[in-house]
Specification:
Low-confidence stretches: none
Protein name: Alpha-D-ribose 1-methylphosphonate 5-triphosphate diphosphatase
Largest sheet: 8 strands, mixed
Keywords: Hydrolase
Number of helices: 13
Pfam family, one: Amidohydro_1
Strand content: 25-35%
Number of domains: 1
EC number: 3.6.1.63
Enzyme class: hydrolase
CATH architecture: Alpha-Beta Barrel
CATH superfamily: Metal-dependent hydrolases
Distance between the termini: 21 Å
Order of helices and strands: EEEEEEHHEHEHEHHEHEHEHHEHHHEEE
Helix content: 25-40%
CATH class: Alpha Beta
Number of strands: 16
Mean pLDDT: 92
């Protein structure tokens, strides 16, 4: 049995078919045929753009549903279902939920909800309660003392597709500017005077010296033994890229400087930048702008990070403002992230690929998701 989507502007990996048709094999959930001309039957998409379903490899969006108000923990499965609905409504059909394994903050939603969130996502998938395809990205905070004890029960799960090594110790990488670090955590209602702030910085540097090196070696070995893709985080200088290469890293997440992104490109690492960075016109923490990397040909993948709707919006802005072709901009949120984490069955509109699809129109610089299909089933 076939489903036909007709009169669509179909975005392929290398070009756009301006008025074509696409056939879905309902039984397999795969794309069966692509036609350069409209057919005489099928659902009329009225010249909407038809894109591959978006692939999100680093979203923290679930956290705001697990703790919708400071100090209020929400039941995990309802939180996951709401997060999933937001992702699908944004055109995201594959979600790597980024769960933080460890945190430098003592009172942390990430520590409180790690295992319950992991279990709830699995429950939602097992019970067909979710509309997107959910996988896992484990974010390993290297200076957290209990990292390995929390990581080892999770990393063997077959849905773990990405592991990132992070070090949020103040004074380096994302927080090389201590005043910026203090300002950021002040917004999170962390109360420091100058003395307590400096004491906190020294405490975190001491934990980094004690734990980060040996934890990183263990995390890298665990990921490599299971064939899981590795990402570095907040690379700031060329030395960080060299370190990542020694660890077998393939993805540089959120490089903070042009220097680091250029080094990643020279050495063949895929670079990930935040879609909110594109939409807002710059980094919220004062680091390099994603659009600047795009204009220097140093950007491969976008991540919605903390705003699911930013993913498609940012891709559209790359097309509108950075001079990228539509296929190239769409690939940054579909094909490139899929391939970076080893997903070969999705990410492009091609015969034999999963029929993960998004129909969209636009109002100026704002894309509007009209319809979404996951493996050929309409989910939005």
């Amino acid at each position: 049995m076939k489903q036909i989507l007709n009169h669509a502007r179909i975005v392929l990996a290398d070009r756009v078919i301006e008025n074509g048709a696409l056939q879905i094999d309902i039984e397999t959930g795969l794309i069966a045929a692509i036609h350069e001309q409209p057919l005489t039957e099928g659902e009329n998409l009225a010249s909407a753009l038809l894109l591959p379903g978006l692939v999100e490899i680093h979203t923290d969006n679930l956290e705001k549903h697990l703790m919708p108000r400071n100090g209020v923990l929400w039941p995990a499965l309802p939180a996951v279902i709401t997060h999933d609905a937001q992702c699908v409504a944004a055109g995201i059909t594959t979600v790597l939920d980024a769960l933080s394994v460890g945190d430098l903050e003592g009172d942390s939603v990430r520590l409180d909800t790690l295992h319950s969130a992991f279990a709830a996502i699995n429950q939602g998938m097992d019970e067909d309660a979710l509309r997107a395809d959910h996988l896992f990205h484990l974010r390993c905070e290297l200076a957290y003392p209990g990292l390995l004890a929390k990581l080892e029960p999770l990393i063997a799960h077959p849905a773990v597709k990405l592991v990132s090594v992070m070090d949020h110790t103040p004074g380096q990488r994302q927080y090389r500017d201590l005043e910026q670090y203090k300002k950021y955590y002040g917004k999170k209602k962390v109360s420091w005077n100058q003395d307590t702030f400096l004491a906190a910085v020294e405490e975190r540097k001491a934990k980094q010296a004690q734990y980060a090196g040996r934890h990183k070696q263990a995390v890298v070995e665990l990921a490599q033994a299971r064939g899981i893709a590795l990402a570095s985080h907040d690379d700031t200088e060329e030395a960080h890229i060299a370190e990542a290469l020694r660890d077998g890293v393939a993805i540089s997440e959120f490089p903070t400087t042009l220097e680091a992104a250029a080094a990643a490109r020279r050495h063949g690492l895929a670079t990930v930048m935040g879609a909110p960075n594109v939409v807002r016109g710059g980094s919220h923490s004062g680091n390099v702008a994603a659009l600047e990397l795009a204009r220097h040909d140093l950007l491969d993948i976008l991540s919605s990070d903390y705003v699911p709707a930013s993913l498609l919006h940012a891709a559209w802005l790359l097309h509108a403002q950075a001079g990228w072709s539509l296929p190239r901009a769409v690939a940054a949120v579909s094909l490139n992230p899929a391939r970076a984490v080893g997903l070969a069955d999705r990410g492009s509109i091609a015969v034999g690929q999963r029929a993960d699809l998004v129909a969209m129109t636009a109002r100026g610089d704002v894309p509007l998701v009209q319809k979404v299909w996951n493996a050929g089933l309409r989910v939005f």
